[in-house]
Design a protein that fits this description.
heterodimer, A: 112 residues, 12 strands, B: seven-stranded mixed sheet, globular
Chain lengths: 112, 115
């Protein structure tokens, strides 16, 4: 069975600092990888996805992620965060693209 | 713009009540999903439907059932609500197979409290 581990439950950073949210997955076969964001009192929306091709994936709001097959990781990065990036971030994996397995979530808090 | 709507944002029910959570999507998606979100546990799949009248159990189906009589509507039913079903419930939908997008679109969630 697939599983996803988000290594940090909470990440506090200062505004305009860089951030990395870590995600590792377990699967012995090819997978599709996703990052979703949940702003307070809202549902989830897709930030970016890796299906195939280039291992560096760019998403919305200046976020990007790198797929590393040998380390089974898909870490999310942003070079300079803004207060509006305060949210919970979820990494997800799918072997069959119809069903997703989510990580536990990382709460990103931006301090002024 | 894709829209997934859920019938209630907040719901308070008593132990033993039968509870219906409704979800409607307007994108003609084949797939619909019900998740439960709890702090520290992320999202866990309760049930999944890939077509009208078709359903598949997810990871935590116990205590829940679902109904999909129309393509756009997917209902989650708690037959006899219990306090351990207090949670945030999220509905999502997606196309069945697509080379362009495997994105799931989420509703705003229903926060259910069972007392």
């Amino acid at each position: 069975a697939q599983s996803v581990t988000q290594l940090d439950s909470q990440v506090p950073v200062f505004e305009e600092a860089p951030v990395e949210l870590r995600c590792n997955y377990s699967s012995s076969v090819s997978v599709y990888l996703f990052w979703y964001v949940q702003y307070p009192n809202q549902g989830l929306q897709l930030l970016l996805k890796y299906l195939s091709g280039s291992t560096l994936v760019k998403g919305i709001n200046g976020f990007e992620a790198e797929f590393n097959k040998s380390q089974t990781s898909f870490h999310l990065r942003k070079p300079s965060v803004h207060i509006s990036d305060t949210a919970e971030y979820f990494c997800a994996v799918s072997q069959r693209a119809q069903k997703l397995v989510f990580g536990q979530g990382t709460r990103l808090t931006i301090n002024p | 713009d894709v829209k997934v709507t859920q019938s209630s944002r907040y719901l308070v029910k008593r132990t033993g009540e039968k509870v219906f959570l409704e979800c409607v999507q307007d994108m003609d998606h084949e797939n619909m999903f019900w998740y439960r979100q709890d702090p520290g546990l992320g999202l866990r799949l309760i049930y999944f439907s890939y077509d009208v009248k078709m359903k598949e159990k997810g990871d935590i189906p116990e205590g829940y059932s679902v109904s999909r009589e129309k393509k756009e509507r997917f209902s989650l039913i708690l037959e006899s609500a219990s306090t351990n079903q207090t949670s945030m419930y999220l509905c999502a939908s997606s196309f069945r197979e697509s080379s362009q997008s495997y994105e799931q679109y989420f509703g705003p969630g229903t926060r259910l409290t069972v007392t």
